[in-house]
Amino acid sequence: MRTLLLILLISSSPWCMATQIYKWVDAQGVTHFDQQPPQGQSSTAVKTPSSPAPIPAALPGSGALGDQKAIDDKVKKQVAEQQNQLKAFCEQARTNLAQLQNNPRLREEVEGELRRLSDDQRQQRTEEAKKQIAENCQ
Length: 138
Known about the structure:
The chain is about 55% helix and about 15% strand. By secondary structure, it is of the alpha+beta class.
């Protein structure tokens, strides 16, 4: 397998493409290829391409390239959705932080009742909000 790979790599290298190749058949019927024509035998010059043939462009949605494009588009859509969710989270967190810092008489609903936050609770929630903003929001 390695030998076949090595032959393919060498035969497709630019050095091989830059030289003239000759083909001939010997007396035993064996076909030979070489850079030099044989002495005393007729040979045919093999036309080699100057550069590899271009790879045809795949149509969108067809083949492996189309499949990869579909996957890329799906991932881009997911990333955009996550960024939008993060943006909404950050806006809400900043709004909550502003309320915690500017309003000393905050209330929260606990088991159907409104209870006022103590100064310690408000300070603790302010620190938590700052931490979440620092970790998640730029």
